[in-house]
Amino acid sequence: xxxIQRLINNLREIPxxxxxxxxxxxxxxxxxxxxxxxxxxxxxxxxxxxxVLTLVNSAYYGFSQQITSINxxxxxxxxxxxxxxxxxxxMRPMFTxxxxxxxxxxxxxxxxxxxxxxxxxxxxxxxxxxxLGFMHDVGKMIFNMKDPLFYETIKERIxxxxxxxxxxxxxxxxxxxxxxxxxxxxxxxxxxxSNVMKYHHExxxxxxxxxxxxxxxxxxxxxxxxxxxxxxLEISNTLGIDFSTSRAEVFRDEILEEAxxxxxxxxx
Length: 268
Fold this sequence. Notes:
By secondary structure, the chain is mostly helical. It folds into two domains: 2-12 and 96-266, Hypothetical protein af1432 (Orthogonal Bundle); 18-90, no CATH class. It contains 17 helices and no strands. The radius of gyration is 18 Å and the shape is globular. The model has no long low-confidence stretch (mean pLDDT 86).
């Protein structure tokens, strides 16, 4: 932990969670809150409002009629999906470096993949699954702040079969699950998100094994250099999904197509 604290202390500024995200997370936890309350938060931010409407009217959601009202848009997609959308859009400015953009794209792919399996395999709430996938690697932002070229310089070693988490430990003396927990505490994230950020590389050490196993599997599935044997058999058994056959390639293609469509819309 000393290495992590030293790394954190040497950084000029740890990113703050956008206030609109904090408000959205707190609202969704409030049983008395309504879609109208969430719409009121968004309405104060014209850029966020415009992006939400653009996405709700995209093929990703597939509504047949043009949606022009924030209230109507949020009513159609629901509170939790709206929260996920706000988190995804509002956190975009935090991913400004080129290395962050790669992290941003990967985060969206894992988010969509987690949502995909949660929905089709009934593993957990699909709306919750999306944000778990999106947030799992945010600890890497700390390393991008410290050395923006780090992940670029280790690409060849990763392609040769080494794990990024091991290379982080070698280079920084700590890894992104540890820096992620620092951010989770700073941002006061819910326990489930924090747990996945900490244990997605070691799901069996978590008390929330299914959620962590899902993120672990999808994290590997959407990698550019993915191979059928990459996902541990124990993870497959926990999730009840066979990743060892060509069917996994079908899952992967469907997830990447959907995720890249969302990524392109968010990048406009």
